[in-house]
Write a structure and sequence with these properties.
The complex is a heterodimer of chains A (about 280) and B (about 150). Chain A has 11 helices and no strands. Chain A is rod-shaped and about 110 Å long. Chain A is mainly α and about 280 residues long. In chain B, helix 1 runs antiparallel to helix 3, helix 2 crosses helix 5 and helix 4 crosses helix 6. The longest helix of chain B is centred in the C-terminal third of the chain and has 42 residues. In chain B, about 40% of the residues are buried.
Chain lengths: ~280, ~150
C-alpha cells in the first residue's frame, strides 16, 4: 500500500494548510453544514489541518482503526461542545475527504495510466479511513450525550439511590424507611405521652416524607399519610387538653409536601427514562 | 457516467446475491453487534431493497432528493428496530463494500479500459453513499429529537 499511496500522503502532509483552507471555505458555505457558518474560520481551518496532518499516521499505522481514534474522538468532542448537529458533523467529514481528493486532482497527482490505477487504490485507502472515522465520531458523539446526561442526573441518582448496593437496593431503602418510621413513632410517643407537648419535633418527619417521595414517587405519599395519622392518633390519645387544629394542619402539610415531591420525582424519572431510551438508540 | 452502468446493472440484477453476502458479514462484524442475533432471512430483504432503490437513482442527474426519500424511510425502520445509529451506519458502509466486492468477484472490470472505468464507477458510488450517509443520519437525528419532544410533552 505504501508505494502507491505515498504520493497522495506526501501531498496531503505538505499541503495540509492549503487543503484545510479550501475545506473551511467549502464547509462554512455549504447548505448541508449551516452550523459551521458561525464558527471562527481559524478554528475550522485548524481542525482541517489536524485531520490532514494525522492522515499519514492513520494511513500507515499497523492498526489504522486504533490510530484514527486520535482524530475522531477529538473531532466528536469539539463538534459536541460547539453544538453542531451530528449529521452536519458527519457531512463536514465527507467534505474533508472530498477536498483532499479535489486537491490531488487539481494538482494533477495522478496523470499517467499507471498513476490512474494507483489512484483507485489510494481512493480505497482514503475511503477506509473515512469509514473508520465516521463510525468512531458517531459512536463517540452518542457516548458524550450519555456522559452529559449521567453527569446532569448524577445528584438526582444519588438521592434516588439508583446505584444498586450489592443487589439489595429496594431492601436497603425499605429497611432505612422502617428505621425512620420507628424513630418517628418513638419520638411522637416521647413528646406526646412523656413530655406532654406537641412542639417542633414533627419537622423531623419531613426527612422520611421527602425520602419516600424521592424513592417511590407518588407512592411515597403513603409515608406522609402514615405520619399524619400517627400524630393525629397520638394527639387524640395523649394530648386531650390541647386543641387538635395545629396537628391537623401539620398532617395536611405532610400529605401536601409528600404529594408534590412525589409528583416532581415521577416527572424527573420520566425524563431520565427518556434520555436513557434516546441514548440506547 | 457510462462506465457506472455496468455496476448499476449488477446492482439491479444481483441485489439478492449481494444482500446475502452482506448479511453474512453484518451478523459477524465486531462493529455491528446489534445484528449478531438477527435472523439473516429477515435482514436480507432490507439490503436487497436498498440495492434495488439505489440502482434506480444511480444515474439521476440530481439523486439527492430521491435518496433523501428512501433513506428517510430506511432510517425510520432502523430507528423503530432500535439499531444504534453508529451500527446502522456501519451496516450501510458494509453494503457499499459488498457492491464493490461482488463486482470484483464477478470480474466486471477486466480490461485496461474497464479498469480505468472502475475509478469513475467508484467515484460515483462514493458520491451516492455520501448522500446516503447524510440523509440517513439527518433523518435518524430528527427522529431522536422528535421522540424526545414527544415524551417530554407527556
Amino acid at each position: 500500500m505504501q508505494a502507491y499511496a505515498a504520493k497522495l500522503i506526501d501531498l496531503i502532509e505538505l499541503k495540509a494548510e492549503n487543503i484545510a483552507k479550501q475545506w473551511a471555505t467549502d464547509v462554512m458555505k455549504h447548505n448541508r453544514t449551516p452550523s459551521y457558518s458561525s464558527l471562527p474560520q481559524d478554528r475550522v481551518i485548524e481542525r482541517g489541518v489536524e485531520f490532514y496532518r494525522l492522515f499519514r499516521q492513520m494511513s500507515l499505522a499497523d492498526n489504522s482503526y486504533e490510530a484514527a481514534k486520535t482524530f475522531s474522538w477529538r473531532y466528536a468532542q469539539e463538534c459536541y461542545r460547539e453544538k453542531i448537529p451530528l449529521h452536519e458533523a458527519v457531512y463536514a467529514l465527507i467534505l474533508l475527504r472530498r477536498n483532499l481528493w479535489l486537491y490531488a486532482e487539481f494538482q494533477g497527482v495522478f496523470v499517467t495510466a499507471l498513476e490512474k490505477q494507483q489512484a483507485v487504490e489510494s481512493l480505497n485507502r482514503t475511503i477506509l479511513m473515512y469509514d473508520y472515522v465516521s463510525y468512531q465520531v458517531i459512536e463517540k458523539y452518542q457516548e458524550l450525550i450519555n456522559g452529559d446526561v449521567d453527569k446532569k442526573l448524577g445528584s438526582i441518582k444519588t438521592m434516588m439511590m439508583s446505584k444498586p448496593i450489592s443487589g439489595i437496593r429496594s431492601i436497603y431503602k425499605s429497611g432505612l424507611m422502617g428505621i425512620l418510621l420507628l424513630g418517628a413513632c418513638i419520638l411522637t410517643y416521647y413528646y406526646h405521652a412523656t413530655i406532654g407537648t406537641g412542639v417542633i419535633f414533627t419537622h423531623l418527619f419531613y426527612i422520611p416524607i421527602i425520602l419516600a417521595s424521592i424513592w417511590w414517587g407518588k407512592k411515597g405519599i403513603f409515608v406522609a399519610i402514615f405520619l399524619g395519622a400517627l400524630i393525629l392518633t397520638s394527639h387524640a390519645l395523649f394530648l386531650k387538653t390541647v386543641p387538635l387544629v395545629d396537628d391537623i394542619i401539620r398532617a395536611l402539610m405532610f400529605v401536601v409536601i409528600g404529594g408534590v415531591v412525589g409528583w416532581l420525582m415521577d416527572g424527573i424519572k420520566k425524563i431520565e427514562d427518556l434520555y436513557k431510551a434516546t441514548i440506547k438508540i | 457516467m457510462l462506465a457506472s452502468l455496468k455496476l448499476l446493472d449488477l446492482m439491479a440484477d444481483k441485489s439478492e446475491s449481494m444482500a446475502k453476502q452482506w448479511a453474512k458479514e453484518v451478523v459477524k462484524n465486531p462493529k455491528t453487534p446489534y445484528y449478531h442475533n438477527c435472523d439473516q432471512d429477515k435482514i436480507i430483504p432490507q439490503a436487497a431493497e436498498f440495492y434495488q432503490k439505489l440502482s434506480r437513482v444511480y444515474t439521476d442527474k440530481d439523486p439527492f432528493t430521491a435518496i433523501q426519500g428512501f433513506m428517510g424511510k430506511f432510517a425510520e425502520a432502523r430507528f423503530k428496530e432500535k439499531v444504534p445509529l453508529h451500527e446502522a451506519l456501519y451496516s450501510i458502509i458494509l453494503m457499499r463494500r459488498h457492491i464493490w466486492l461482488y463486482a470484483e468477484f464477478q470480474a466486471i472490470f477486466i480490461s485496461i479500459i474497464e479498469q480505468h472505468q472502475a475509478l469513475d464507477s467508484q467515484l460515483r458510488t462514493i458520491l451516492m453513499f455520501d448522500y446516503i450517509t447524510y440523509a440517513f443520519t439527518e433523518r435518524y437525528w430528527e427522529l431522536m429529537n422528535l421522540e424526545y419532544a414527544k415524551k417530554n410533552k407527556k
